[in-house]
Amino acid sequence: MSKPVREVALDILLQIEKNQAYSNLLLNQTVNRSKLDPRDVGLLTEIVYGTIQRRDTLDYFLQSFVKKGVNSLQDWVKVLLRLSVYQLVYLDRVPDRAVVHEAVTIAKKRGHKGISGMVNGVLRSFVREGVPSFDTITDETKRLAIESSHPIWLIKRWIDQYGFEETKKMCQSSLEPPNVTVRVNQIKATVEEVISLLGEEGLKVRKGDLSSDAIIIESGNVFQTNTYKQGYVTVQDESSMLVGRAIGAKPGMMVADTCAAPGGKSTHIAEQMDDTGTLMSFDLHDHKVKLIHQQTSRLGLTCITAEAGDARNIHQKAIGPFDRILVDAPCSGFGVIRRKPDIKWSKTENDIKGIQSIQLEILDAVAPLLKQGGTLIYSTCTVDKDENEESVANFLARHPEFQLDHTLKDRLPKKALSRYQEGMITILPQDFQTDGFFIASLVKQ
Ligand SMILES: C[S@@+](CC[C@H](N)C(=O)[O-])C[C@H]1O[C@@H](n2cnc3c(N)ncnc32)[C@H](O)[C@@H]1O
């Protein structure tokens, strides 16, 4: 018999807690291997993401019900209580009795009688006494950290960079479920044509809010449609689609994408090149290069070559010069917390300096490979200014042959320019309910 869904959720959450495993990868693996009913897959996903997303809020709720404090508990008991309280507070469709009963059954199976009694006592008291208030937390930064479940160091950093009100909005929008959006392969069809194809296959869809290439999937599984399988669309966030537009690639050009897997932006660029010219895509990891190959063959694109390579050494290859180079750099990922909530807990403030130095090494390495007059696009899916504006400023200080490109704004929709500054745009998650993104365009003189 297959394991009950909450026990599967407990196993996944424990692996994430102990091994810093990625929630999305682990969930996919588990769903692919298990015999879960499709309705249970929905509940499992909701419990796993929700419990990670609200971790510190849940611990705050539990604190007054656990005598010696939440941190005194064994990991599995702590995680079991968290996922149970998550359901009690945030999931209306699960009756309280069922949540408590399931938790006690799991505790009996995994621990001794004392533990199942404690789990029963804590959860019953919680149901009886109700959700604790945040009003006792007087410090507003601490309150925001606990109420929105973000580490306090990150909140302080964002307040320094964006101010309190913008930080509050960013935290709130990081808790919202992300849209599922697809980018239309405009070699094969127009946005309108694909909207009707998806509609005929039973999906509820509408035009995107930010990008002219985008369709938002309101209901239905796009991966199971023929429209997807036959290469009419690619699943991609709307703000990420702006990068493909920012690069301004044209048919016949020589283009390099240095950090390319799984290929979302490479395939967009190739579509704009009308699948002519040459697009050389690289990624550090061999296994990820396979993902680029899968996407190019599904989309029927032939102008992309993809191979493993460290972008920090790319100048040693006998390639180029290129008309366009994209560095979609490895980054802290703080713009995609809605999709990967474990980022909040796995990254530390110290990591940021290390990531920034890799970004600069990559930028330094690609600089000689660009043609004179060519464009270098630097993008990240983070909102951290050290990895964005500061990385660009550092690069420009060392490379006087590069300048910020003021024509960037002409290649992007007007709507996306609300935070535009001299050749750079920032999109925060609260602006358009998309991922947070940063794009800088640099021209070589
Ligand atoms: C933000 S992701 C790229 C997403 C991709 N551009 C897309 O649109 O699908 C960053 C990628 O950089 C790769 N990476 C990290 N360090 C690298 C390096 N030194 N050289 C090349 N690729 C690297 C990672 O494996 C990861 O796939």
UniProtKB/TrEMBL annotation:
Annotated SAM-dependent MTase RsmB/NOP-type domain residues: 170-445
Gene Ontology cellular component terms for the protein in this record: cytoplasm
Recorded coiled-coil stretches: none
NCBIfam families for this protein: PRK14902.1 (NF011494), rsmB (TIGR00563)
EC top class named in words: transferase
PANTHER family: NOP2 YEAST -RELATED NOL1/NOP2/FMU SUN DOMAIN-CONTAINING, RIBOSOMAL RNA SMALL SUBUNIT METHYLTRANSFERASE B-RELATED
One BP term from GO: regulation of DNA-templated transcription
Upper lineage: Bacteria, Bacillati, Bacillota, Bacilli, Bacillales
Function in brief: Specifically methylates the cytosine at position 967 (m5C967) of 16S rRNA.
Name of the protein this chain belongs to: 16S rRNA (cytosine(967)-C(5))-methyltransferase
InterPro entries membership: MeTrfase_RsmB-F_NOP2_cat, MeTrfase_RsmB-F_NOP2_dom, NusB-like_sf, NusB_RsmB_TIM44, RCMT, rRNA_ssu_MeTfrase_B, RsmB-like_ferredoxin, RsmB/NOL1/NOP2-like_CS
